[in-house]
């Protein structure tokens, strides 16, 4: 049975020194079975206070853009994002020494607190089970430590997305996102605000997860607030990195690279990034009509123009030959990113391969469904039926049994 979760954060702020466990003891949570739940209370993020700057920000795509003295970019989004990939890979290598293996450290046992920590993870599992049933099923084959860590990350991502897409989205300002980012810093500094943050705090203390992709996802949400058109694919790529490529970068340290893998850490991170981009491009292609009804067109404007199309065609929702040709090209591009991602899945630790293959295979099938709908993504939502999922899952499982490549390869 799915449990809709409403989380109300206590007015007592952990930045005042209240620990995770203290706020749990104060019982600042309750459940609500209403369909319109809110995964994040706006209470704290709308209230103001706290640091307003991004102190301590290390390298990010945003800082790379801002750092250009003339204000002109000399690199493409893809080059800038690849720089983040290299830095993430280097960071994880440095933290783990020379080996590629990502060891899972045991929980730090805090006397009297362990029960509630596991309760926090259970809540994360419930949120996952409600929002992403198939993905949640896939995580069942992971080791328990990795599974609950992925749940905690999933929940943070879902809450972040909910800020700009959820029922309170109209109240969310850039300043509110700054405060959400401050709260993220607190999570990484071991001062979580609520129970769900507590699970993430524990996760990031046990796995070599870096804060940068999390910050970058918030940057993607800022972008969503200020922008509703994308001039070209370069701009769209950056958005896709922020809101989805980051998920890949957050997940690799949890999934782990197989100890026997000969692939470079960079190449695995690059594949993870590609999976995020592929998923987001697919999301965008599936949701063209829905997004247009909210005044948003994520498709590259220059490519629309080259195809003889404009926003008006999208708002009118006309499935013409021009539209079909345009969509074929977009689907082809998304499939290329899925292909790029495939190269890396095999290199992941054996128990983590199934959920990733499952999500890759199932998400890619949405593209087939858009085709089956004769490219009508204005009024028909492409979805993969239960029976198709049931056929695809054993295929994903079979793929997950393939061991890592024996040769040194997978250079970018
Ligand atoms: C080497 C290799 C291939 C490793 C695998 C790395 C990996 C696990 C990559 C996961 C990629 C992934 C699932 C990306 C999510 C992309 C996505 C759909 C992002 C959505 C953004 C906003 O879009 P939009 O608002 O248009 O969409 P909705 O209409 O709201 O749906 C997101 C909603 C951002 C938030 C993302 C999530 C909630 C998903 C987070 C998922 C995880 C942490 C679990 C990832 C693990 C697996 C096994 C898939
Ligand atoms: Mn969303």
Automatic annotation (TrEMBL):
One of its GO terms (biological process) is carotenoid biosynthetic process. It is an enzyme of class 2 (transferase). It holds the Pfam family SQS_PSY. It comes from the Eukaryota. InterPro entries: Isoprenoid_synthase_dom_sf, Squ/phyt_synthse, Squalene/phytoene_synthase_CS, Trans_IPPS_bact-type, Trans_IPPS_HH. Pathway: Carotenoid biosynthesis; phytoene biosynthesis; all-trans-phytoene from geranylgeranyl diphosphate: step 1/1. Its EC number is 2.5.1.32. GO terms for molecular function: 15-cis-phytoene synthase activity; geranylgeranyl diphosphate synthase activity; squalene synthase [NAD(P)H] activity. Signal peptide: none annotated. Keywords: Carotenoid biosynthesis, Isoprene biosynthesis, Transferase. Gene3D superfamilies: Farnesyl Diphosphate Synthase (1.10.600.10). GO terms for cellular component: plastid. It catalyses: 2 (2E,6E,10E)-geranylgeranyl diphosphate = 15-cis-phytoene + 2 diphosphate. Belongs to the phytoene/squalene synthase family. This is 15-cis-phytoene synthase. It comes from Solanum pennellii (Tomato). The gene is PSY1.
